């Protein structure tokens, strides 16, 4: 029962966080696809729905048994308590997490990994590919998420040399699948909260498309930011993307671990997503603080997080309002 209550409260917290986060968007449009399967068999969901159903039937039939025979009810109650105690001991002794009925990567503890790229005009082509993946990909299973992760990395590899900014964020190791799910949802919620509306959204096998927006490959001055957040059953083992070569190696490493036994959850987010919608360079670092220059690239201008006025990135404070430079370049 405690697990069920914690699951419900956690879900409400995520929804509440999404609602608050959307009040401070950075862009108008975005696209995304993803799914999660934190249960042992990989069929989708974390198992809380099954626990709720089990508790319901225990209460229902237990009450009926109590009315028919109090003695039989007491005997069954003792048996149920013994089963719960023994299962908890077994679960506590088994420190390793499992996926699809087998132990995950040797010595592995789960990690949440985010790879983020800021792409110039090439990003306009990539977001069209990502939108196509969202419409046709299978987000309702681990196998489908693994395929989408591999396809996303392949698409990004084709344009990785054009990336001006990139980031690698690793959160872990996570002690349990519950911790892994919570950390993943928090990170994904942060990225989804950076824009107002979805032009396309695919989740757990369902797809919603905003017909108002039609993407084109026309060249535009600005950036598109693509974020790949994944919950893995092991540490990725790749270094930060400080140059184009290491960025390509990072994407290659992420593609190499894309398997149904390793990928617990996936969220791919790109923004902006609508035709003619791009991010200006001065918006990048304040909006996406994890980003850093690839190959020594530095922003020439930043947008003040307080008053919204642009100014030189080398300044420590905004000359208009005196606000601190949250994306200061040393």
What can you tell me about this protein's structure?
- The strands form three sheets. An eight-stranded mixed sheet has the order 7-6-1-9-8-4-5-10, with helices on both faces. The protein has a two-stranded antiparallel sheet with strand order 2-3.
- The chain has eight helices and twelve strands.
- 36% of the residues are buried.
- The chain is α+β, with helices and mostly antiparallel strands and 330 residues long.
- Among the domains are: 25-42 and 102-271, no CATH class; 300-330, no CATH class.
* Helix coverage percent: 40-55%
Please mark out the parts with pLDDT under 50 across 5 or more consecutive residues, or reply none. Answer: 1-24, 40-53, 90-107, 215-219
The percentage of residues in β strands lies in: 15-25%
Rounded to the nearest angstrom, the radius of gyration is 23 Å
Kindly name the structural category.
alpha+beta
The H/E string reads HEHHEEEHHEHEEEHEHEEE
Taking the sheet with the most strands, its summary is: 8 strands, mixed
Q: Work out the number of β strands.
A: 12
Q: What's the rounded overall pLDDT mean?
A: 75
First-residue to last-residue Cα separation: 52 Å
Total helical segments? 8
Shape: elongated
**Order of strands in the sheet with most strands:** 7-6-1-9-8-4-5-10
């Amino acid at each position: 029962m405690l697990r069920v209550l914690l699951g419900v409260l956690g879900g409400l917290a995520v929804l509440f966080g999404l609602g608050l986060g959307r009040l401070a968007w950075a862009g108008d449009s975005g696209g995304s696809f993803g799914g999660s399967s934190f249960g042992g068999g990989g069929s989708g969901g974390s198992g809380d729905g099954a626990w709720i159903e089990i508790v319901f039937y225990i209460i229902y039939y237990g009450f009926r048994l109590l009315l028919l025979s109090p003695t039989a009810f007491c005997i069954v109650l003792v048996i149920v308590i013994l089963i719960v105690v023994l299962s908890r001991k077994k679960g506590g002794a088994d420190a390793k997490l499992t996926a699809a009925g087998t132990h995950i990567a040797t010595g592995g503890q789960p990690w949440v990994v985010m790879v983020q790229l800021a792409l110039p005009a090439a990003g306009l082509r990539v977001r069209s590919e990502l939108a196509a993946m969202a419409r046709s990909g299978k987000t309702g299973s681990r196998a489908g998420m693994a395929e989408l992760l591999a396809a996303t990395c392949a698409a990004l590899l084709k344009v990785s040399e054009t990336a001006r900014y990139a980031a690698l964020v690793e959160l872990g190791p996570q002690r349990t699948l519950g911790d892994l799910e919570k950390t993943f949802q928090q990170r994904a919620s942060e990225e989804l909260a950076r824009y107002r509306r979805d032009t396309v959204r695919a989740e757990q096998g369902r797809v919603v498309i905003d017909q108002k927006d039609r993407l084109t490959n026309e060249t535009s001055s600005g950036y598109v930011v693509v974020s790949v957040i994944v919950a893995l059953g092991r540490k990725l083992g790749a270094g930060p993307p400080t140059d184009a070569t290491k960025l390509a190696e990072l994407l290659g490493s992420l593609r190499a671990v894309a398997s149904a036994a390793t990928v617990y959850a996936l969220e791919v987010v790109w923004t902006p997503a609508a035709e003619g919608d791009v991010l200006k360079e001065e918006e990048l670092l304040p909006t996406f603080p994890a980003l850093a220059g690839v190959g020594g690239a530095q922003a020439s201008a930043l947008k003040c997080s307080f008053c919204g006025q642009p100014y030189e990135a080398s300044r420590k404070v905004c000359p208009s309002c005196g606000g601190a430079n949250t994306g200061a370049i040393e």
